[in-house]
Structures are given as C-alpha cells and as structure tokens.
Amino acid sequence: MITIALSKGRLAEQAIDLLEKAGYDVNAAREKSRKLILEDPKSGLRFILAKPADVPTYVEYGAADIGVVGKDTLLEEGRQLYEVIDLGFGRCRMCVAGPKELEGKLDMIPNKRVGTKYPNITRAYFEGVKNESVEIIKLNGSVELAPLIGLSEVIVDIVESGRTLYENGLEVLETVADISARVVVNRVSMRMKSDEIKPMIDRLREQVAIMNAEGREDK
Ligand code: PRP
C-alpha cells in the first residue's frame, strides 16, 4: 500500500487526473465526501487530503510515502524529502511586489518592512540572496492589503495571473522563484517500498513528458 498526501484543492484534482492518465485506479480519490482518508485496497493506493503546508510534514515523517505539493510550500517548509518530479502544473511565481512608484527603487529603501505568508522564503531571499536585512511581517492571507494600508512597503507573495496585484494598483518588482507542483517522496519509503514507488515515479515522469510535449505542440 502506498499512501499519497495531496494538497486539498485544485492541486489535488490535477494530481488525481495525472495518476489516472498514468494508469492508476483513482476511483477512491474521486469520492465526493468529507472523508480525509480515501482508500482503495484493490489498487493499493491510499490518499490523504491535507492542508498544503502540512503535506511536506506528513511525507517527512513517513505518515505518507509520497506527496504532491507546490514548490512554494517546499521552499517555505524546508523539510527533509526527495523532490523527484516537476509536474509542470500549478505554475506561478513567487515575487516581491509593491506600488509602481517603487519600480527600480527597491534597493534604496533601508530597513524595509515586508508583508508575507512566506517568512522563510522572504528571509532567504533578502538576507541570503540580496544580503539585506528587512523586517518580516507574517500575514495569513490577503497580503496585498499590507502596502495599501501602510503596514509594509512591499510584499512577497504568489503571482499567478497578476490580477490581484493589478486590481490593487501593485506591481511585480522582483521575481524570487518560479513555482509549480512537485512530487516528493519520503526518504525511507524510497528504499523500503522501491518496488512500488520507483515504477510510479517512472510512469508519472512519462506522463508529464507527454503532457509537456502536447503543451509545446499547442503553442
Ligand atoms: C493567492 C496569492 C495572491 C493571488 C494571486 O491568494 O496570495 O493573492 O492568489 O493570484 P493572481 O495573480 O491570479 O491574482 P489566495 O487566493 O491563495 O488567497 P490568500 O492569499 O488571501 O490566502
């Protein structure tokens, strides 16, 4: 039995579709209910539906063998895992954003306050990459509010379509990282359940390669 931790929401649905295309029986995972563990003894798969930020935790501790989770969450949580596949969906960017007036002037503001749901990514970027000390203000959502209301000069947040920034008069000032959904594997499971996990990784990789090729043809 392989236990797969899925990030509740859109990523979970896309991950289930992908497993199905790769030839796995995902009927259990498609069950419309509020159950958090969906198991199909016949197919040998058990799905757990977790909050995205908790998926790396379940996988690191071995409560799940495999997880599907955004790179943003992996960077923020910094867990000990094997990251084995870039699934190519759930694409977005982690960005520094702020008012238009700050375009090209970000480095001139000393001791900036940065509002974010991602304090670890923000610290690694400003202190590690830019060698700059900032005050990080942890928020839990609607982060775009912070510069509008004077809580912080800038934010570090996910930008997908750019619509939230645009409608709030904000702009991308710098890109921190490209984000997409990843498959992660528990380090012990990779060895102890390699008979089941390695073929699954191969089948998923094949399927992702097909999808990427189709995507290129569409362009
Ligand atoms: C995310 C992110 C941005 C928005 C970006 O928010 O934090 O606010 O989506 O998407 P866009 O570029 O397509 O507009 P989410 O919906 O997760 O809500 P929250 O941050 O308020 O929790």
* CATH fold name of the largest domain: D-Maltodextrin-Binding Protein, domain 2
CATH level 1 name of the largest domain: Alpha Beta
The biggest beta sheet reads: 6 strands, mixed
Order of helices and strands: EHEEHEHEEEHEHEHEEHH
**Small ligands present:** 1-O-pyrophosphono-5-O-phosphono-alpha-D-ribofuranose
Distance between the termini: 39 Å
% residues in beta strands: 25-35%
Helical content class: 25-40%
Taken together, the total number of domains comes to: 2
Derived from helix and strand composition plus strand pairing, the structural class reads alpha/beta
CATH architectural label of the largest domain? 3-Layer(aba) Sandwich
Indicate the topology.
Blueprint (H helix, E strand, L loop, with lengths): L1 E6 L2 H12 L15 E4 L4 E6 L4 H6 L5 E5 H7 L4 E5 L5 E8 L13 E4 L2 H11 L5 E4 L6 H5 L4 E6 L3 H5 L2 E10 L1 E5 L1 H6 L1 H25 L1
This protein binds 1-O-pyrophosphono-5-O-phosphono-alpha-D-ribofuranose.
Question: What would you say this structure looks like, in words?
Answer:
The chain has 219 residues and is an alpha/beta fold. The chain folds into two domains: 2-90 and 180-218, 3-Layer(aba) Sandwich (D-Maltodextrin-Binding Protein, domain 2); 92-178, 3-Layer(aba) Sandwich (D-Maltodextrin-Binding Protein, domain 2), CATH 3.40.190.10. Helices cover 35% and strands 29% of the residues. The chain contains eight helices and eleven strands. It has helices at residues 10-21, 55-60, 71-77, 119-129, 145-149, 163-167, 187-192, 194-218; strands at 2-7, 37-40, 45-50, 66-70, 82-86, 92-99, 113-116, 135-138, 154-159, 170-179, 181-185. Strands 2-3-1-4-11-5 form a six-stranded mixed sheet. It has a five-stranded mixed sheet with strand order 8-7-9-6-10. A hairpin with a 4-residue loop joins strand 2 and strand 3. The relative contact order is 0.19. The mean pLDDT is 95. The site of 1-O-pyrophosphono-5-O-phosphono-alpha-D-ribofuranose (PRP) has 12 residues, from strand 9 and helix 6.
